[in-house]
Amino acid sequence: MKAKKYIVSLLLLVLGWSTVAQELGFNVDGLSLETNRLGGKIMGEIFYISALANSNFLYPDEWVDGEITLTDGDKYENVKLRYHAEDDELIAYNEKNKSLYFVEKEQVSAFVMIVGEQERKFIKGYPKGEDKKGKYFEELYVGNQIFLSDTHVYEQKVSPFKDELGIMRDVEYYFRSDYFRYSKKEGYHKMGINRRALITAFPEHKKAIKKLLRKNSIFIDSEQDMVRAFSLLDENHLLQ
Amino acid sequence: MKKRITYFLVLFLLLVAYSGFAQTDSEFSKLHLYTDRDYCLSGDTLWFKVWLPKKLEQNSNVAHVQLNSANGGVITTAVALSKEQWVEGFVHVPDSLSSGTYFISAFLNEQRNLELKHRAKTLFVYNRFEEELKEMKVPGAALISNVMPVENQVKINASKTICSTRDKVTGTIEINLDEIEHATLSAKLRDPLVSSSAGDITFVASKNQSIIPAFAEKDGVLISGKVFNEDNNPQKNTLVLLSISSEPPYFDYCISDENGGFNFFLKHATGDAKVVLQAVSSSNNEFVIRPELNSLDVEKELSIETKILNPEQSKFISTIIQANFINKLFNSTRLSSENTFQMPVRYTVPFYGIPTKRVTPAEFFDLPNFKEISRELLHGFQYRNVNNEISFRLLNLSQGNFFPHEPLRLLNGIPVFKNSYFIDLKSTDISYIDIVQSERVFGDIQINGVLSVSLVDKSNSWLAQQSNINSYTIPCLQLAKQAGYLRTQKIAIGEPDIRQNYLWEKLQVSGNKTFEFYLSDLKGEIEITVEGVTKNNQVFKTSKIIEVK
Questions:
Q1: Are B180 and B532 in contact (CB under 8 A)?
Q2: Interface of B with A in 346-375 (CB under 8 A)
Q3: Least reliable range by pLDDT among B63-72, B93-102, B204-213, B496-505
Q4: pLDDT (tens digit, 9 = 90+) per residue, B291-332?
Q5: Do A72 and B346 touch (CB under 8 A)?
Q6: Is the CB of B218 inside 8 Å of chain A's CB atoms?
Q7: B388 CB near a chain A CB, below 8 Å?
Q8: From CA B62, how far away is CA B79, in angstroms rounded?
């Protein structure tokens, strides 16, 4: 009998609470004094990670610590980050509300990801033909000219196969990088990763470049070679 | 041995930390306020310049100026931005202020966290409706700080010592004092009471009770306040929302601290901000929000004594009150108190994200209520009516189902939590409707879809009848303005010229300087003053008197 009374009172309480409670339209779980931030707030769209995206579109393979710099100079440090190479979006993890989100591109000026021992810096650029939102580039060399890479995912049709989850697929995804050089005066210029591309980029220094590369035994075959070449050219005032 | 090294290290670190604090404190004491006058009439505009040490300016470039009564009450405040170590602005002296001695001081917001000595200037205010003032409450002589005499090092030479009204006065300043940090030059009508009883005083401001965040005000202003429950108890851990109806709308949130305190920062905000503050909880509790002035709390009442005015002092006051009356008849020079709010848009994307859809009802035929509008124009939006309980649901496009809860509902960018606000809205009331059919984050809050209705009427008059939502006008950074009397404009011969301030400018700290100004129609003694501060933080002052007959 007593138990019945308790159950009824509990039910009434629950009912009462549900009628009084108001829906705010946002989730305030995890808000505390530490979440107060006077400098501004970061915004973005919630991202639900799929197995496909996790294994094919996100760079690097693991969540890494990083730093986001906003266009007004405001900085967010120690944020878990990954870059979505297919959508060209930065994904951050919000520890307070346990969610992943695409960081609003308009807010971002640059971000740094600590991959292994390396700090990899990405900046937002606006090459010709791209939409107003801009595009993320990784800074490979910064000097009188900036050497940048644009990493994206491309899909390739393959013979049908079953993936690890037993799902039939006929495409495979690969990371690919395009390379650009940038200067305030000339803007963005796409370039290849070879000696010819470098000479074509700076035709007025053709002879000097050839000589320098030969003298320093640089054979351009990778982005590291190109970074070395850019650094060498800059030291010899050929990028001004 | 190891223990000893640890002790030394700790001691060393403590010393370093202490010296850091001490340095900041001494930097704060260097902040110096100049005013264009030592007396004024109620309703006047008082102009100020504040000099900021470079070290402080690098961290915080916003100075606050406040006018206090002798009992410590705050009469008015102003906040302005510095430029090359100087902050310039103005304070409106209320029209209804009674005659007496008031104190004006300048400070940085961070100083409110510390119990510090502050320097203030006396300001004698004469109520402009006063018929005859026979006595005044003035600070005791012991309260006035000494100033360093520099007659021999700073010489003021005027072209003539006896002048006629509207004469042009020229002169030179010879500075042979190497240690000047900053100084100003002024020429004004001399108030005999000021000469005998005014000056700088020192007062102690108590440490502010509410927690001011360790956040330097740079290019913006801090908005602070406290949240209480119905029983007037401070509410901790309560969500406080700030909204400004702008395009796009401005929104921010803060969780109250243990004293119920909350803070917001408006960057690059100028003019008077109309902010809407609300404290919310899912349990629908009633809260009271009280915004707090960014002001210093004077620890104890300043001792002032009644002084019987001599005939010369009384006559001067009567003369300027009459002159002010004539001036009001011919020339209303009071600065417009209207300060249009401006805050540059930080991001074009609204805080709730790029809308999935924007619907402009004016592009369709008129609909009588929100139910019809949602049914006809808002696809992916459900208007539900169950037992007269109205609820809204939005389609979550990324998940392909309806959100189980209400979306964030905004009216003119202000979050509202009752759907009854929307029910009677007609097409003609609405400018546009934004809906966001995805989940968003803003800081650490997660937003589950958004319905944002922008009304044609932006006055937000609907707020008046709502509990828990309050609109406040909060002064932000002052817009740059210049004192009318400093503008080089000639006053026509037939018009009265009753200026009492003729010159007021920053002074180069070395070498010679020439000056010129025109006198007004007022007769009496004109005081040409050089005042400043030495590098050792000593205030100096020297004056030259010329007579207008």
A1: yes
A2: 346-349, 351, 353
A3: B204-213
A4: 988 888 887 777 888 999 999 999 999 999 998 888 777 766
A5: yes
A6: no
A7: no
A8: 7
Contact between residue B253 and residue B240 where contact means Cβ atoms under 8 Å apart: yes
pLDDT level of residue B19 (50, 70, 90 thresholds): very low
Whole-angstrom CA distances from A217 to A141, A147, A192, A211 are: 19, 20, 19, 10
Task: Give the pTM.
Answer: 0.86
CB-defined contacts A:B, below 8 A: 126
Distances (CA, A) of B130 to A39, B98, B134, B316: 48, 9, 10, 13
H helix runs in B247-367, sequence order: 311-330
Mean pLDDT, to the nearest integer, of B168-189? Answer: 92
- Regarding beta strands B200-206 and B511-518, do their DSSP bridges make them parallel or antiparallel, or are they unpaired? unpaired
What pLDDT, in 10s, does the model give residues A55-71? 889 999 999 999 999 99
Backbone angles phi, psi at A203, to 5 degrees: -60, -30
Q: Which residues pair with residue B171 across a beta bridge?
A: B158, B515
Of B351, B398, B415, the CB nearest to A43: B351
As to burial, measured by CB atoms within 10 angstroms (0-12 exposed, 13-18 middle, 19+ buried), residue A139 is middle
B156: exposed, middle or buried (Cβ count in 10 Å: 0-12, 13-18, 19+): buried
Query: By the CB < 8 Å criterion, does B384 face chain A?
Result: no
Q: How many CA atoms lie within 13 A of B504 on its CB side?
A: 22
List CB contacts (< 8 A) between A132 and chain B.
Answer: none
Which pairing describes strands B539-548 and B162-163: parallel, antiparallel, or unpaired? parallel
Distance between CA atoms of residues A76 and A112, nearest Å: 10
CA distance B351 to chain A (A): 7
ipTM: 0.86
Examine the pLDDT at B213 and tell me if it is beyond 80: no
Contact B376, B366 (CB under 8 A): no
Is the pLDDT score of A7 beyond 70?
no
